[in-house]
Amino acid sequence: MEGFPMRKWSIKIFLLDEHGDETAANIFSSAEYLLHESFGDRARQVKNDPPFRISEEGWGEFEMRINLHTMDGGREHSFVHDLNFAQARYDIKHVVAFKKPTTSQITALRLSGPIPGEEIARKKTAGDETPMGSGGGVAPPAKKRKSGFGGKDKLESLERLAEEIKLIKDKDMYELIEIINDNKGDESQITNDLENGEFTVDLCTLPDKAIQLLQQYVEETLSR
């Protein structure tokens, strides 16, 4: 437009790892950019390879919608990006959550850092929480449940289960957490802090069915 300088601009999309460094956004299969209608035939552009770079030239600032398509046909993640020329370069961060990611999606996400529920640390005291994820854990029982089997046998059984969970490999942790979430009860004490990568459960508050499924899964997984 007359009186306004033409500006070249470009956008690239990355994931940020646990240290805040850029890493390839391989979790996405494509990025769809919906530009201002003044771009005509170029108002909709799809990029299929990370970092999904788009380059254009124009005079005006505007808001565009960016649709990120997840690999394996996962759901679309959309957000609005404010294109402006106040700075020569600027970064904008968006938080994207993945609900029940597939195995390949988990593998892709793992490249950008720890996944909640995967990395297991160890603590010596049975009464302490055993970390599950980057900061959560399984709390061995310190009291008897009101229903189901109880007493010393149950306490020893759950303490043994807590110790065995520490041996589960990273790639199997997501399914274990899914078993807990799918079979928890109204009184189950579970903390799932996705932002900080923490998942904590008090085993003694889980229903007997959940404990039985966990024991079965852990036994089968460790015997592979």
UniProtKB/TrEMBL annotation:
It comes from the Eukaryota. It is found in: Nucleus. Pfam families: YEATS. The keyword Nucleus applies. The keyword S-adenosyl-L-methionine does not apply. Residues 124-151 are annotated as: Disordered. InterPro entries: NET_sf (IPR038336), Sas5/TAF14 (IPR016665), YEAST_sf (IPR038704), YEATS_dom (IPR055129). One of its GO terms (cellular component) is nucleus. Keywords: Nucleus. Residues 1-112 form the YEATS domain. This is YEATS domain-containing protein.
